[in-house]
Every structure is written in C-alpha cells, then in structure tokens.
Design goal:
The structure is a single chain. The chain is of the alpha+beta class. Helices cover about 50% and strands about 15% of the residues. The chain contains 15 helices and twelve strands. Strands 3, 4, 5, 6, 7 and 8 form a six-stranded mixed beta sheet that branches. A two-stranded antiparallel ribbon has the order 1-2. It has a two-stranded antiparallel sheet with strand order 9-10. The longest helix is centred in the N-terminal third of the chain and has 32 residues, at about 20-50. Bound molecules: zinc ion (2 copies). One zinc ion binds near residues 293, 296, 351, 352 and 379.
Length: about 400
C-alpha cells in the first residue's frame, strides 16, 4: 500500500505547468484509468466490509453510517456507494468489465440503478446491457436502460401494470440550498407530468400573447418563472382549503428593528448588523431589497427582537393589502399600469407608491396594479409617483416613461 502512496508522491512532485500538452494529457489518461481501477478495488472491499459487518464493533449500525462517520463521506454518497458495492456483487459481468477498464464508473452507476430497480430482469439481460455500456455514450446508455425497463415492466405486468409501475416511481425532492435557492428534483408519472407541463405551457403562451417588449429571459428562466406563476395563482385563490384557520400565503417575517429606515440604501447592512434579517418561512433570510419588494404586497409577520436577536414579541401575520382593498384597486386599474403593459389582474400585485415601511398609506390612492415582472422592475430601477391620480414612471436618469393616451383607464 505504501507503494501506492509513493506513486502518488511522484505525480505530486511534478511541475504540471511546465509539461508539454501531450505529456499532461497522457498523464491524465493514466490517472483517469487508475482512479477507476482504484474505485473498483475500493468498492470490492466495501462490499466485503458490508458482508462482515466489522463496523458493528465500533457501534456503527450500517456500512453507510461507518463511511459517513469514519471518513466524513456525505450521507447520500455513502448510501449510494454501499448500494453500488452490493450491486456489483450481483452483476458479475459488469464487475469484470469494470475491473478490465472496459466500462467506466459512470456506466457502472447507470447499470447499478437498473439492477436495483429490476434485479431479476437484469440477470437475464446483463450480457446485453454490459455490451451496450461498453459501446455507447452515457446519455445513450441511459436511453437504452429506460427502454429496457419499459420492456421488462410490460412483460412482467402487461400494459396496465406498466402504468402502475411508472406511477410507483413518481417522486419529488425539494431542498433549500446554502445560498437560499430552492432545488427541485424528481420524476413525475406521465399523467402528472402532462398536467404540470400543460399548466406551465398555458402560462408561457399567455405571457407571449401579452408581451410587448422583447423578453431577455433564457427559456429555462421562463420555465422557472412559469412554475412560480402557476403556484402563485393557486395561492391567490380564495376557495382553497384553510390550514389552522388561515390560507397560507407568502409570508415575510420582519424584525421591527430592521424596519427602521429600511428604505435607505444602507438598510441591508443595518438589518444584518442587528442579527435580525428579514426572512421567508421556508427559504430563510432574504436581503432588505427583496424584503422591500415582497412586503409591498404579501402577508407580513412583525417580530420584535431582544438584544441577542431572540424574538420578544411575534405579531399576527396580516395581509398587507386586504382583499377588499385589492378589489377596489383592480376595479380602478383593470390591468398592469406600467406603460405599454396590459397584463390582467391575476398577473398583478398591488404596489405601494410610497412604501408602507416609509410611512405610505395602504389606501387606494397609494396603490397601483403592476404585473409581477413590472413590479420587480419598478422596485429595481424605476421611480414612481402619482400625479393627478395617474402613475408616472421615471427612468433612472429622471426622464418620464410615456404611457400612450389610449392606454389610460377612464
Ligand atoms: Zn411594490
Ligand atoms: Zn406589466
């Protein structure tokens, strides 16, 4: 084993930046092959350890727990590693091909998942699948495996059973990442998937029809926005079920201390300094600018924090713009009031011209209907004031955005 270490040491002492292209690539190829060969050996020993359960001596309940605890491997990786090590024991052909370097670790992972899903079918098809793994790219191998699984499932259970089998595989994972994004990952059965795609398509098509300005969003960004819009519309419905006496909606929790002077530009630091950042129920802390925009038209819970940021008093969550007031604004504005936009009320928020955190009133003459995208733009870039009861938008340079006379509501 110390030989292995001295080989690594030899590689380490090399001044990579001075080597010619061919040498660097050659070295890389050799290391890539070595890493996979070592991984094959690592998994072989992991399977042996899993069989012997030697980790029980130290109180670990499973090989995955041992991997995670002893070597600080992430839980998911540990579980997957043990599953693959066990799987290789049941895939002799795959194991041989892997050990010979004929198929890559990535291919072995794809085949391992197939084996776990269809252990009996896999035994019959192992030769065919191993052969496919040695000839195809990983993307093509995945397609081969998906097709193979359909065939196996249909043979086992008929066309009706295939539907049930697909449905049994449905799953959706959601998680909040460290930087406050929300990650979605899942597989939807055909019917649910079609429903989701149809709803998103409807939002995208309606957007295209009401689009007057070029859209600078990438397709993936548009889809993300569309999914949000579908959910938002559902939350906006008044006939959906109550939970614990209220209909959950986007709620911004705002430490009262962070509210003082939040409209000024040094607000983000100030909120952070006090350790009481505004937050959303599920994704956690948000910056002051985001809080400013969301708190314009959402539910808000005010929290009074003590000296060490512990909440002393938590207020009731209240909708900033009550439904009756919103209806009055909708009756008056009838559409997004941003110049050139005519998105109807369901796409819109009620925007405070003078923000309530700066003392602006939540009343009809201080509220303007803005679609979600123009609401964001207005908070980010445009100045808005009411002149003779009409909203006037100014560009950052102070010039006025012209609202054509035919567009003004009566
Ligand atoms: Zn607003
Ligand atoms: Zn608009």
């Amino acid at each position: 084993m110390s030989e292995l270490r001295s080989v690594i040491e030899a590689f380490r002492s090399e001044e990579v930046s001075r080597l010619p292209d061919a040498r660097v690539e050659e070295d890389f190829g050799e290391l890539q092959a070595a890493v996979e060969a070592l991984e094959a050996e690592r998994l072989r020993r992991l399977a042996e350890i899993d069989r012997r359960r030697s980790f029980e001596r130290d109180g670990y309940l499973s090989a995955a727990a041992w991997l995670a605890g002893r070597f600080r491997v992430a839980w998911n990786d540990a579980r997957r590693g043990v599953a693959l090590a066990r799987g290789l024991d049941r895939m002799p052909r795959v194991r041989r091909a892997f050990h010979d370097g004929a198929i890559s670790l990535s291919a072995v992972r794809v085949l391992g998942e197939a084996q776990q899903a269809e252990p009996e079918g896999f035994q019959v098809s192992e030769r065919f699948l191993t052969d496919a793994a040695s000839r195809h790219s990983i993307g093509d191998l995945r397609r081969v495996v998906v097709h193979w699984r359909h065939v196996v499932e249909r043979e086992r259970s008929g066309a009706e059973g295939l539907d049930a089998a697909l449905r049994a595989r449905r799953r959706l994972h959601t998680s909040v990442t460290l930087d406050g994004m929300v990650r979605l990952d899942g597989d939807l059965d055909p019917e649910t998937g079609e429903t989701v795609l149809t709803a998103m398509r409807a939002v995208l098509d309606a957007e295209t029809r009401t689009e007057h300005a070029p859209d600078d969003r990438a397709p993936a960004q548009r889809r993300a926005d569309a999914l949000g819009e579908v959910c938002r519309r559902w939350l906006d419905r008044t006939d959906r079920p109550e939970v614990a006496g209220e209909r959950p909606h986007l709620t911004v929790t705002v430490p009262v201390e962070a509210l003082a002077g939040i409209g000024t530009s040094d607000a983000p630091q100030r909120a952070g300094d006090r350790g009481g950042a505004p937050s959303l129920d599920h994704v956690g802390p948000i910056d002051a600018a985001t809080m400013h925009r969301l708190a314009c038209d959402a539910s808000v819970t005010r929290v009074v924090l003590g000296p060490r940021s512990e909440p002393l008093d938590v207020g009731r969550r209240t909708a900033v713009v009550p439904p009756a007031l919103r209806r009055a604004v909708v009756v008056r504005d009838r559409r997004c009031r941003f110049p050139g936009c005519d998105r109807p009320p369901p796409w819109c928020d009620a925007h405070h011209v003078a923000h309530w955190v700066d003392g602006g009133a939540t009343s009809v003459d201080n509220l303007v209907l803005l679609c979600r995208r123009h609401h964001r733009l207005t908070h980010e870039r445009f100045a808005l004031e009411m002149t003779d009861g009409r909203p006037v938008f100014r560009r950052p340079d102070g010039s006025i955005l012209d609202d054509g006379p035919d567009r003004a509501p009566p």
